[in-house]
Amino acid sequence: MLRSIAPVSVLLTLLSPFTTAQQKSIDAEGHQWWQHAVFYELYPRSFADSDNNGIGDLNGITSKLDYLKDLGVDALWITPCFPSPQVDFGYDVSDYQNIDPMYGTLADFDKMMGGAKQRDMRIILDFVMNHTSDQHKWFLDSKSSKTAQYRDWYVWRDGKGQNQPPNDWLSTFGHAAWTFDPTTGQWYYHFFYAEQPDLNWRNPAVEKAMFDVTRWWYDRGVSGFRLDAVDTLFEDPKLKDNPILPGTNQYGDPNMDNKYNTKLPEIHGVLQRLRKVADEHDAVLIGETWTKDIAELKNYYGAHGSKELQMPMDLMFMTVDKLSPPEFRRQIATVDSAGGWPVFVISNHDKPRSYNRYGDGQHNDPIAKVMAGLYLTLRGTPIMYYGEEIGMENNDPKRKEDVQDPIGRTGWPKDKGRDGERTPMQWSDSENAGFSTAAPWLPVPPSYKTHNVEEESKDPNSILNFYKNVLALRHKEPALLEGEYIALNESDPNVLSYLRRYKNGAVLVVLNMSSAPQKVSFNLKPQGFGGAKATTLVSTGAPTGEVNLSELSLEPFAVYIGKVSK
Ligand code: NOJ
What we know:
566 residues
């Protein structure tokens, strides 16, 4: 009997009828692989269910690699798939070096990795750095006694008095950020749920163990990490109370300025050292950084010659909730001028889907194309969220008892939690959208009948085919990959226009963000393109063929992408 001594990915490579595509890290002009890659965030619980138990799994993902390749995706970011009690659906990790049985096995992981490599796709994982699960063996030991080996791996303190936590800090998921543990009579700190105790990053042993986790996955073939909640790694050692702000939040707690438990400067030392490890493996670090301004963003790239995150996922677009050209212009200008490689994200597993955030209820499909036309053509790397390419919408729970995400129960009805944006991928119009023959862990919205991969593949005007066209263009058009971003017609309140200029060529992008027809005109002589004409590359609701730039007519929510000449 053949004993499996080599990882499955190695065996696959040996046995495969395909040769493993050579994954080039850097092109002839010095661009790194992650600068040209389109990333796709995939929530494993909801993507594809191979064993029909209502919950997605790794073999499900493997079965959809051809779909993803065909769509134009180069790298997958898989949200946590490690063993976990699933209180925060995987963001409470109880073992960093394994796969949750619900999702499969390490052998399934290797198979998925082998399949991705064969298709010249990369995989990055989610690195939950700030906290572990309270069921992680480190925490179980830590709580067992004050002198336990792992005691100092977490943040333990005496209370201020009987039943009084050490200070006023609040969990971002509601109520006190401290939980009392009777075994040792001390409180432990958790920025998120009580089941997610914060690691003590001031302890060098924590850093070493966590960095080793990344090395272990690099050796298994992963190409980088999305770093979860990096802002929260450190706390003020003196535990100063945070300033209280006026009003209360959705959980009924006072509003608070998290001055002493978020964004502490010590974070940057950790990221610089983590980057060294990543560089040894040609890996990318994408940070969940939620920056509020350019100064913060610059620091995450690495200030004063240091290197930190190649791609701080500033999430600035997530704060623009309406189709506002001036607002987008402002955010793009900030990100574009920060001196690093921008990252653009319009949806993720923590925020209502872009289809709902930007949709007006009447023109949601054309608006979804406008948003795709925007973030897939900017200078930088786009990170898609599964289902965005078919216009998936939020399906928020209708009753409190149906809510899965604990914050949806704490905050009900003001905050219904994040279930709505995590529903199963819509593959077809059959039952449960073709995701599973069993009832899925979250229900699909009624729109799955029309918005699904199978139906949209057949319709040349679907959102899916629009994504495919723009992604294909993005992969072959140097100006879209490399070109500088030049804002055009900057006072136009309705139409967002810009040029992507690279060497002798340029691509013009024009997005009508209004529900009224618009006429726009461009003089691109100052930018070096006096031809006054454009050759259409992608057009929806706008002219095709050779276009005169002195008067371009746009239907409501039109997208025009064209090549301009000298
Ligand atoms: C950010 C993740 O995106 C979110 O889903 C999670 O709940 C928190 N970090 C805690 O890990």
